[in-house]
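Renewal narrative, Specific Aim 1. Our central claim is that a sequence can be written position by position from structural information alone. The example that follows is taken directly from our test logs and has not been curated for this report. It begins with the structure tokens describing the chain, in the order in which they were read.
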């Protein structure tokens, strides 16, 4: 069999986005809308997921499934990546903090939609790989650092939006404090067996409200030693 070319991969990427759109339609009652923002779907078409997974998995990168990336971690299912991005309602002038860089795929999607992405990763090997790949692909508006995601990145706060790609039983206090009034945080909340993808809205007076969307299963948010 011939090796896959960029043309083949682009076709698979378009198909992946069609599957995401179908999933959104099927889950419209749960997520509260029949389709995701076209800007999000366009970003998913542009970002080359096969470059953000281990090379041996590149040929299956566009299946709608999580994939292992090492250290017992995964890159999220594309539908979940798209849904979380959609729930953030990112605007071109906004800054976003991501907790859990992994190999950088979600950060690249966010960078397609926001002005600046700050992303924190607890695993040093992931952070260095993600930084190199994002730089190679021209994502100059993404800054990566190694650190404890529960502490956020206070030097660049407040953030218009915050995305957490690992589960916590309660929203980390530091992240709530670093979220700008009027901002949104999207994260999985709950213990390993009963997580809910949740949108937290911060009111102008600093009060927060939470809205559960769908059940999910993520690895637990880790703190640095």
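The sequence written for that structure reads:
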């Amino acid at each position: 069999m011939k090796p896959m070319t960029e043309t083949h991969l682009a076709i698979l990427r378009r198909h992946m986005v069609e599957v995401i759109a179908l999933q959104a339609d099927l889950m419209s009652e749960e997520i509260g809308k029949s389709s995701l923002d076209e800007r999000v779907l366009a970003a998913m078409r542009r970002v080359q997921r096969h470059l953000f997974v281990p090379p041996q998995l590149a040929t299956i990168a566009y299946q709608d499934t999580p994939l292992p990336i090492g250290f017992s971690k995964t890159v999220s299912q594309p539908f979940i990546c798209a849904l979380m991005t959609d729930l953030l309602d990112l605007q071109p002038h906004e800054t976003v903090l991501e907790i859990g860089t992994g190999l950088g795929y979600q950060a690249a999607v966010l960078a397609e939609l926001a002005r600046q992405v700050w992303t924190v990763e607890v695993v040093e090997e992931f952070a260095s790989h993600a930084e190199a790949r994002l730089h190679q692909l021209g994502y100059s508006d993404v800054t990566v650092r190694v650190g404890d995601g529960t502490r956020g990145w206070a030097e660049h706060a407040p953030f218009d939006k915050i995305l957490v790609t690992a589960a916590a039983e309660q929203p980390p206090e530091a992240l709530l404090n670093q979220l700008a009034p009027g901002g949104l945080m999207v994260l999985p909340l709950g213990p390993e067996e009963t997580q809910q993808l949740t949108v937290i809205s911060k009111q102008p007076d600093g009060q927060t409200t939470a809205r559960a969307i769908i059940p999910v299963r993520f690895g637990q948010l880790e703190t640095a030693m």
